[in-house]
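Dear Dr. H.,

I hope your travels went smoothly. While you were away I took the liberty of generating a structure for the chain from your last submission, since the lab meeting agenda had it listed for discussion. I wanted you to have the full record in hand beforehand rather than looking at slides cold. The sequence, exactly as received, is reproduced here:
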Amino acid sequence: MPAKIIQTNDTPFRRVEVEPITLDIIENALRNARTEMDAVLFRTAMSPGIREQHDAFPMIANSEGKMVVGQFGSFIWGFTQGYDGDIEEGDIFLTNDPYSCNGAVSHLNDWLTMKPIFRNGRLVAWGAMFGHLTDVGGRVPGSLPTDAHMIFEEGIQIPPVKIYRRGEVNKEVLDMCLRNTRTEEWNRSDFNAIVAALRLSERRVHEICDRFGDDTFFSAMQDMLDRNYKAMKAIIHMVIPESSNKFYFEDYIDDDGIGMGPYKVACSLWREGDVAIFDFEGTDPQSISSVNFLLNEEMFKMFLGAFTINLFDPQILFNDGFYPLVEVRIPKGTILKPVRPAALSCRTHMLGRIFDIMGGLLGQGAPDALNAAGFSDSPHFMYSGYNKDGEWYQLYQIGFGGIPGRPVGDGPDGHSLWPAFMNVPNEFLEAYFPLRIVTYETIPDSGGAGLHRGGNGVSMGYQFLEPGEISIHDDRWLTYPWGVNGGHPGGRSTKLMVRSDGSSEHLPSKCDKIKVEPGDILYFNTWGGGGWGDPLKRDAEKVSLDVRRGLVTKEGARRYGVVLRDDYSVDVSATERLRDDMSRTRGELPMFDRGGTIEELKARCRKETHLDPPSAPVFQKWMRRDRHVEAAE
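The corresponding predicted structure, in token form, is as follows:
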């Protein structure tokens, strides 16, 4: 049954007219409050994943739980519908269990907190935030086993619990949760920092209400949602024509960490009236490994809104207002809607691939607005062990790669999937962990060639100074980040271990418990973004500049039909001849260039990657027979 909200004042808020200047002031005050929540967190958390890389997401929602400012969309309405208890002033709720909140958080490392904000006895708003904690227990340091079969292997599961009751912390429950982790001190600090951010959101809401009045604040939040609805309605009509034809696109994650793959994600898109419908029928069944992603329908709507708003009008305030305009259909039992207790710890690859799916779908209606495939992942690197003083160390770090070529220009080099993420400074890594960074550079030619070049991936060389173990989470080692409108695919990812004795080995993209010794070096190479448009139409002087900057090699310039002299100046006549020859022999330019079919990529796999191709996925028998069942046999 739904939660019971305890209000001592049952007077309803009045919808009043809010004049435009006041609305803009309140909107920007809420935007600033969200930014302040981040600042409080980043300055007081201890784990590098939150403190340095900013792997956390704040939100302020209205009294109904609809996100007004934030990034990941609201999960509060779903929480209130599923929580069987009272919600009172001073309460703070905590959960990390994806199955308890329909995927509002998608693996156990993400601790989600929610605080109802009361004013004069009435619920006026919500503050919420979740952040990735370095460790929550489980089989491996970092709590992200690549070969887990059940969620029980991945760490402590915290169903929705009232961690603060009327302002008082539930110390016993909190201590129990923290004791089941390898990084208790960091986690306690991160949790307290998240709570401090929630309290700041509460203060800022009260300040806005003090200045403008409760009814004006209530009405302004609804106006912001309505404004978003109108803007997104126009964008949806622009990019998704209403017709009997459906757009279809599919993409893959390469493997599951236990030797099987690729796994297909399929989606069809069409519009009925004002409503855009995304149907994931045809997606592969859930994996027996941990690459499943419990995709919350509201989260997908958030992804769609962020993608389209940033593409068409970044000035639009991104919030939940447009959600009635989108319908999401995800068959139960698929890799995007797994059945408990399926493992979820490696869900980052499928989560990121959703952005490529959206790009491939939305661009079909407007090819000139089509994006190539890019750095659709958050690769993880983990290193842990005991140092020479017997102290435990544990690093969790997110890798960066190439952003796709776009209609407006080249893709940035060495960037994150999430725009607000930051890199961990090398000085920080070397100061706090027993390692040295021997290489940190973009990988020339890893961005796909095009009129607009795809961004390059990054090579990061970790030299280990203490014995320990590492874990790697990555993808796009088999399939390519596809190019569009004649653009070429981006380069794949690779992981090369060079041992202190001079031997070397290529590591798989997903692996745990790899032993390392002092002097060993791991070259963690991420992938590039696909190219956009005909590379033969790229200004030859831009290609020359890319070569001088080390982003493209002299040999790689020939992919653009550009011939360079020894001083990297353009040989104009030779370039014209080469471009004429390439133009005559290449045939029709494809809308999507994947670098080959799955069968072709597998056939070339060993030669091109030094790794064996994955075998075809094996699914549970009950999942093949009926993916809509409620539980496994």
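Two observations you may find useful: The chain has a mean pLDDT of 93. The longest helix spans residues 184-212.

With kind regards,
E. W.
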